[in-house]
Amino acid sequence: MAELLVSIAQGVEKGDDKQVVELVAKALESGTPALDILEKGMVPGIQALGKCFKEGTVYLPEVLIACRAMNRGVELLKPHLEGVEVSSKGTVIVGTVEGDMHDIGKNLVKLMLESNGFKVEDLGSDVVPGIFVDAVRDTKADIVAMSALLTMTMVEMPNVIDALKEAGLRDKVKIMIGGAPITREFADEIGSEGFAEDCASAVDEAVRLMNL
Amino acid sequence: MKTMNNLTRVLTTLRHQEPDMVPTFENQIDSQVRDKIKPGLSHADFIEYMDLDAITHHELEADTAVVIDESKGLVRDKWGALRRYIPASETVSMTVEAPVKSEKDLKKYVPPDPDVSGVYRNLEQSVKRFKGKRAVIAVVMNPGNAVKNYMLGQVEYFKAIKTDPDLVHQLTEIARDYYLRFVKNCIDVGVDIVWIGGDIAMSTGPFLSPADTETFIMSSERGIVQYTKGRGVPCLRHTDGNIWQIFDMLVDAGYDAIHPIDPVAGMDLGEAKTRYGDKICLMGNVDCAHLLTWGNPDEVRRAVKKCIQDAGKGGGYICTTSNTVHVAVKPENYVAMVEAIREYGKYPL
Lengths: 212, 349
Prior knowledge:
The complex is a heterodimer of chains A (212) and B (349). By secondary structure, chain A is an alpha/beta fold. Chain A has helices at 2-13, 17-29, 34-55, 60-81, 104-115, 129-139, 151-154, 156-166, 184-190, 199-209, and strands at residues 91-96, 119-122, 143-147, 174-178, 194-195. The two termini of chain A are 28 Å apart. The termini of chain B are close together. Chain B is α/β, with parallel strands linked by helices. Helices cover 43% and strands 16% of the residues of chain B.
């Protein structure tokens, strides 16, 4: 069984969705608990990929197809996970701030967070502060992750934080931000607890913010 | 040193010789910033008013895009993509819906026609007005990015690189043919320089592995660089991001200059000068993400001085912002930048 889980991890890491689907089915048939397939096979695979991305040895296409392989495997596992306590690392609201439609970074962060055990509420792009506020209230999220690619739109980030303060929700949620012009200094300046420069670092940062 | 005219200043720099002073011009200058500096001027009037060394015209300026919903900033562009312009900007847009999703779409796909009338009218006007005096530059996309941004959409493009490389190659071929003809037409109109754009890197490094960058990006644009230079026209390249891993590739492609040595992505102008200054001209990199947006004129002047110190020696350096003069740049900071270039950039340095 251990070998099969290693192969599943390798399939996820190299983004081979056919291999993942085939091996997950085989593991299920052989009676391997779905939770073990997820936590001991697929998650280590996506984590290894994330590490390589941070180290600069894999690139955006590899990340996207690994996330796709992960999702295909998870779809197969879902019916077998009903009633099983799958521990979520937390709920993260993701969105690109008002005026900014550049969403590939945000989409990658979403994929990587989901693949690493977070529940993600995706608000999309060009999201006004009020929508972030409503989502925090409705989902009881742990983290709000905002992205902006443009200097002209990063100024919207403090507006979202202000809106959360006005709604009395700021102390209920952690903030993390990212995007091309964003720096740790800017995050500190606007009072964002978290900052990530890429989708793999976003997972690490979310884990840090959750004190996991 | 004898004063040169603007065009000679730029061309001398691109030949790696010292001009009379460090040249400056921009990829784009937002009209709102322009209007705050000197209200009522056209793009060309502003170039003359600021005495910038070149005027740029983007391929989409005189495009055949059809407005779908003005209130939402939605247009159908020449590639068939539904694009949305962001409210604050006249130049930044994103593809909402790409025209090609599979091989099936490819079969019925009709690429744009580079010979359609009117597309080169702005270039023609600038050539008429500035020929021999200021550099007239045509700014075009690289074929790979046209596939990513216009034909497939970003996420599908990156996935298809691994899952359907044939589709990417076929689309890249279509885009390459279009741009070869487009660039030919620009040169026939009389442009002095061709500037190829399209980001191929992000803050942490290239989008694609160096091998994939070669296969899916450089192999198609190299022919355009060669064609351009074969016509005796210099060719510049813009890409945001950290490009250390692929810098050699851009040099080997034959580009005359690389822009903007993105400081937000950790690129260092002085290091680029040391490593590549004898092989390729450098353009950049006064920070428009933070400094020109939130800094003050004194800080801008100091940054310009440092850029010139880092990269100006021996020529081969054009001082520009680290991307564009976008809508959030403080007008007084851009004015300070240009003044400082003229003050600190006189050769011999």
